[in-house]
Amino acid sequence: AAEKKVKWKLAMTWGPTLTPFTTAVENMAKMVETMSGGDFVIRIDAANKHKAPFGVLDMVKLGQYEMAHSASYYWKGKDVNLLPFSTMPFGMTAPEQYAWFYHGGGMELMEKAYAPHNMLSFPGGNTGNQMGGWFRKEIKSLDDLKGLKMRIPGFAGEVLAKLGLTVTNIAPGELYTSLERGTIDALEWVGPGMDIKMGFHKIAPYYYTGWHEPATELQFLVNKKEFDKLSDKNKEILRVAMRLASYDMYIENYHMSTDAWASIATEYPNIKIKTFPKEVLDAMKKANDELLADMAKDQPLLKEILDSQKAYLTKSRAWTEMSDYLYLKDNL
Amino acid sequence: MIGIIMFFVALVALLFGFPVAFTFGAVSVVFGLIAGIVEALSYDQSVMEGIIEGINMFAFMPHRIYSIMNNTILMAVPLFIFMGIVLQKSRLAEKLLESMGFLFGELRGGLAISTVLVGALLAASTGVVGASVVAMGVISLPVMLKYNYSRRLATGTICASGTLGQIIPPSIVLIILGDVFQVPVGDLFEAAVWPGLSLVGAYILYILIVAFFNKDAAPAIQIEGSAGTKGRQVFNALKAIVPPLVLIILVLGSIFAGVATPTESAAVGGIGAMGLAWMYKEFSFKMVHEAALETVKITAMVFGILIGATAFSMVFTYTGGDAIVEEFMMGLPGEKWGFIILSMLAIMVLGFFIDFIEISYIIVPILVPIAEAIGINPVWFAILIAMNLQTSFLTPPFGFSLFYLKGVAPPEVKTTHIYKGVIPFISIQVIILIILTVFPEFFGLNPLL
Amino acid sequence: MLLKIENFFNKVADFIGHLTAVLMVLMMLNVFYDVIMRYFFNTGSIAMQEMEWHLFSLVILLGVSYSLKEDGHVRVDVIYDRLHVKKKAIINIVGAFVFLIPFSIFIGTGSFDFVMEAYTSHEISGDPGGLTHRWIIKAFIPASFYLLVFTSIGFIVKNINLYRGAHNPHQHNLEGEHK
Ligand code: NA
Ligand code: NA
Fold first, then answer.
1. Model pTM score
2. Does B110 reside within a domain?
3. Measuring CA to CA, how many Å separate B156 from each of A130, B207, B424?
C-alpha cells in the first residue's frame, strides 16, 4: 500500500525577509521534499503568520507545529539548561563549536537537555562572530561604561549589568529614535549587514567588536513524538537536510558579512571600529565567569554542559592558535 | 477560496450590529470549524475529527494575544486616550481648540484646521492609529459638534488627521517597510516628512474650500461672553492656547531631548495633563478615576477589535487565504509604469480588506525584487506604499480608524456619517499619492536608484 | 428576580472596571517612573520595565469585560440603530450565544496548555533581573475570557430584561453613549 504523504509545519522565529536565516529553512524544506520524492513536505510559517516569534518552543512542544527554526538561548527563561547551545560570551568560534557539537559530546548533551521537553534540537546555521554593538561615545575605561544606558538582551546584558550598565528594554520599532535622541547610549543588534539596514551607524558611530556572541548557532527544534512517527528513511532525510542546510547557511552568512563589511569599509568611512580596552574585557570575563558559576551552582546538567564546553574550548583553542591564529598573525 | 468567502460573510455579519470585535471572532470560529471539517474529510476522517481540528486552531490564540500584550508600543493607546480624556474633562482641549478656531477669526473651518494641526503634532509622537484617532475623537469631536460642524466634515477630519501618525514619523508602517525593503528606517523617516506634511497642507486646503463654499459645514467661532476689545479677546485666546500647547510640546520635547521613547512620551503627556488640570483647579481624584474608567472602556474597545481581527487573520492565513493573494501579485507586469500603477492599485484594493501588516509582509516582499530589477529607488517606492497603506485605515468597510472613531462618538454620529466623511479625505490621499508618483522631486525624493 | 440577577452581574463588572482603572493609572505612573529613573538617575530595573506591559496586559484583558457591560464595544449601526429595542435585544442575546460565548470558550480552553507549559517549566523572564512567575500573567488570558463568558451571561440577562420591557434602556447606557 502507498504510504500516506507526510505534511509538516515549521514555525520560524524570524520574519519572512530575514535572510539568510529564512534561506536555511527554505533550503532544508526543499531538500526534504526532493529527497523524499515529494512524500515528505514541510510548510514554513514565518513570524508574521503565527505572530509568536518567541512562542515557537511552546508550539512545538505542544505539537501545534512539528518543527521550528529559532535559537536555543531564547529559552533561558524557560529552562536555563538550554542557554549554552547557541553561543556563550568568550566561548568557542564557529568551527570549534561545530567540532564540539558533532565530536565533542555537544549533540548528546543537547539531546539530554531537550529530553524533558520531549523535543529534539539540531544545529540550524551559524551567524559567526556578532559585533559588540553601537555606541554614541567611545569607551576608554571601565568608568565610561558605568551608568551607560544600553539595549542588550539576555545573558550578555546580565554580564554588562554587573559592570554597572543600565540595561534597558526598548521595542525594536523604537530603537532608532531612542538611540538617535540619546534615550539610550548604545545598543547591540546583530551584525554588520543587518545593523547597517537599521541605520545605526548614522547616529552612533562607534562600532565595537564582539565578545558576547562569538558563534551564534541557530536551531531546528523538532517535536520528538512526531519525529518518532517518521519512517527511518524520512528521519534520515530530515537529519541530512537540516545538517546540510545549516552548513549552507553558515557559508552564506559568511559571504553576506564579507560583502557587508566590504561595503561598510568603502561606503561608510565614518564608522569607527573599536575594540574594548583590556581593562573592560577583563572585567567582562570576570563577571561572566562569576555569573556562570553562580548559575550552575544548583544546576548539575548546566554545569555538565558548561564544563564540557570549557574543556573542549581549551583543547580546540590550542589548535586554533597554532593554525588559524598564527597563520593570520604571520601573514597580516 | 474559504478566505474570500470569509470577508463577505464578515461584511454581512457586521451589519447585524453586534459588536465588531466579537463579530470578527465569531466569523473566525465558524470558518475555523469549516476549514477543520473540510480538511478532515479530505483525509477520510470524520466530521467530529474535523471539528476538533478546527477548535485546536484556537490554541494558537493565546500566543497571538500574548504578542499583543508584550508589544510595548501599543501602550501608547491607553496612555494617549487617558491624556485626551483628562484634557477633555478639564475642558482644556475645548479651550485650546476654541481659541485656535477663534484666532482664525471670521475664517470658517478654523476648528477643523486646528484639529488637523493637533493631529499632526500627535502623529509626531506615536505611530499607533488606535491611539491617535481615539485621542483626537475624544478631544475634538465634541467641540466640533458643539459648534454645529457638519458631522461628515468633523468625523472625516478626525479620522484623517488621526491616521497621519502612520506617515509622519515615528510610524509602524515605515518601520515594517524598512524591514521588508531592507533600507534604513532612518532614511524612510526622513523621506516621509514632506509627503506627510503635504497631506496636512492638503487637508487644510480642503477644509478651507469646503468652509468657503458651504456656510453651514464649518461655522466660524465666536466665543460667547468674551468681553473687551478685539485685541483683548485675541490675547485671551492666546493665553488659553499656550498651556495645552506646552503640554503637546512637552510630549514631543521629551522624545527629542532623549528623555523618553515615543511610547513613554504618552505617559509624560498623561501626567502632564493631570498637572495642567491641577493648575487650572480642575484636578480631583474623582476626575482622574472617571478618566481612567473611561480610558479602560475605550482601550478595551480598541483591543477587542485587535483581538477579534487577529483571530480573523489567523483563520484567513491558516486556510490559505494569503496564498490566493500572493498568486495574484506574482502576475504583475515587469515594465516600470505598468508595474507601479498596478501594484499601487492592488495594494489599495487589498487595503479595503487586509490589514497593513499582512500587506507589508505578504505582498510587498513579492514587489521588492521586481522593483529592484526595474531600478526603482526602494526609499521612494516604500514611501509610495506607506502613503497607500495609511489610506487603508480609512477605507470602508474594514478601516480600523472608522471603527475606533465610531467607538468614541456620541450616538447621533452614525456609521454612515463617518463612512461618507472620510471619502473626500481618501480622495485627497489618492491625489497626493499620484503627485508623489509622478513628481517625486517635489518631495525631495529620487525615483531611481 | 431577573433584575436582581442583572444587578449582581453589573456589580461584578463594575468592580472589574474600577480595579482596571486603578491598574491603568498604575501603569502610567510605572512608565513615568521608569523614564525619570533612567534619565535623571541613570538606573533602571528590567523588572519595573516589564511591569509596564504586565499592567498594560491586565488593562486590556480585564477591560474587555467591563466594556461589554458598559456597551462600549463599537457596533456598525447602519441597520441596528433603526431597530426597535426588542429587536436589538434579540440581536444581543443571539449574538452573545452564537458570537461571543463560543469564541471566548475556544480561546479560554485553548489557552490552558499554554499556561500550564509556563507553570510547569517555571518560566521567568529571559532578561537580567526580569520578572519571574510568567504563568501568572499568561493565566490572565484564559481567566479574562472565562470572565467574558461570565459577563456575557449578565449581558444576556440584561437584554432579556430589555426584551421584557422591564426597564428603560436609557438608564443602562445601551445606546453606547459617552457621558
Ligand atoms: Na544579537
Ligand atoms: Na507617527
1. 0.90
2. yes
3. 49, 10, 8
How big is chain C, counted in residues? 179
When CB atoms are compared, the residue of A62, A79, A161 closest to C128 is A161
ipTM of the complex: 0.91
> How many domains are there within chain B?
1
**HEC readout, B175-243:** HHHHHHHCCCHHHHHHHHHHHHHHHHHHHHHHHHHHHHHCCCCCCCCCCCCCCCCHHHHHHHHHHHHHH
- Please tell me the predicted confidence (pLDDT) of residue B369: 80
Cis peptide upstream of residue A20 (ω within 30 degrees of 0): yes
Give the torsion sign (CA, C92, C98, C101, C103): negative
Q: CA end-to-end span of chain B, whole Å?
A: 39
B345 assigned to some structural domain: no
Task: Report C:76-135 residues touching B (Cβ under 8 A).
Answer: 76-81, 83, 88, 91-92, 95, 98-100, 102-103, 106-107, 109-111, 113-115
Calculate how far, in angstroms, residue A188's C-alpha sits from the geometric centre of ligand 1.
Answer: 6
Chain A hits for B361, Cβ within 8 Å: 15-17, 46, 48
Cα–Cα distance measured from residue A294 to residue B428, given in angstroms and rounded to the nearest whole number: 63
Looking at residue B326, its amino acid is E
Question: C94 and chain A: CB distance < 8 Å anywhere?
Answer: no
Structural domain boundaries enclosing B182: 91-299
CA distance C148 to C61: 9
Q: Which chains are adjacent to chain C, needing at least 3 Cβ pairs under 8 Å?
A: A, B
Give contacts of B 394-413 with A, CB under 8 A.
none
C-alpha cell at A233: 528513511
Please tell me the distance from the alpha carbon of residue B361 to that of residue B366, in angstroms, as a whole number.
Answer: 9
**Grid coordinates of B148:** 454645529
What the block records as the C-alpha cell of B363 is: 505582498
Choose the closest CB to C76 out of B14, B66, B70. Answer: B14
**Three state DSSP letters for B244-293:** HHHHHHHHHHHHHCCCCCHHHHHHHHHHHHHHHHHHCCCCCHHHHHHHHH
Neighbours of B195 (CB within 10 A): 23
Cα torsion angle, A291, A294, A299, A304, sign:
positive
Within-domain flag for B399 = no
More confident: C177 or B21: B21
Indicate if the alpha-carbon torsion angle B131, B134, B140, B144 is positive or negative.
positive
Q: Is the peptide bond before B397 cis (omega within 30 degrees of 0)?
A: yes
In this structure, are residues A309 and A90 in contact, taking their beta carbons and an 8 Å threshold?
no
Does residue B354 sit within a domain? Answer: no
Does the N-terminal peptide bond of residue B170 adopt cis geometry, omega within 30 degrees of 0? yes
CA atoms within a 13 Å half-sphere pointing along the CA-CB vector of C105: 11
pLDDT in tens, B390-430: 898 899 888 889 999 999 999 899 999 999 999 999 999 99
Q: Which of A49, A61, A148 to mutate to test the interface with B (most CBs of B within 10 A)?
A: A49
User: What are residue A301's phi and psi, to 5 degrees?
Assistant: -70, -40
Cα-to-centroid distance, A189 and ligand 1 (Å): 5
**Structure-block grid coordinates of residue B79:** 496612555
At residue A308, the pLDDT reads 97
- CB distance B53 to B62 below 8 Å: no
Name the H helices within A62-153.
94-103, 106-114, 142-145
